[in-house]
From TrEMBL:
Name of the gene encoding the protein in the UniProt record: Ak8_1
Keyword DNA-binding: no
Keywords: Kinase, Transferase
Gene Ontology molecular function: AMP kinase activity
Family named by the database record: Belongs to the adenylate kinase family.
InterPro entries: ADK_active_lid_dom_sf, P-loop_NTPase
Region named Disordered: 1-22
Biased composition (Basic and acidic residues): 1-10
Family matches, as SUPFAM superfamilies: Microbial and mitochondrial ADK, insert 'zinc finger' domain (SSF57774), P-loop containing nucleoside triphosphate hydrolases (SSF52540)
Protein name: KAD8 kinase
Origin superkingdom: Eukaryota
Length: 94
């Protein structure tokens, strides 16, 4: 919630900031920052509710899907995803 709700964008430059982790460098820039309506807490809560309401069904449907730890070097993530794609996921027949 904190990561999403504190994102801001500079409408002049398009540069993105975060009020805690990457604040605007000057008061002038900080004054003109705007928050995307999708990043307001009530909208984030709605998206999370939708996610949690549907995640079990998705996990059941894609039972052979793989988990990607994206908290690694981008090259390592790419190599892992590529290796999973080479052996494609089986399709569920209805």
């Amino acid at each position: 919630m904190e990561r999403l709700s504190q994102r801001r964008t500079d409408p002049v430059t398009g540069q993105r900031y975060h009020t805690t982790f990457r604040p605007a460098p000057t008061p002038e820039i900080q004054a003109r920052l705007r928050q995307n309506p999708r990043d307001q807490e009530e909208n984030i809560e709605k998206r999370l509710e939708t996610y949690y309401r549907n995640v079990k069904d998705l996990e059941d449907f894609y039972e052979d899907a793989f988990y990607v730890n994206a908290d690694q070097d981008p090259y390592v993530v790419f190599e892992f995803v590529e290796s999973c794609i080479i052996k494609p996921l089986p399709c569920r027949k209805f």
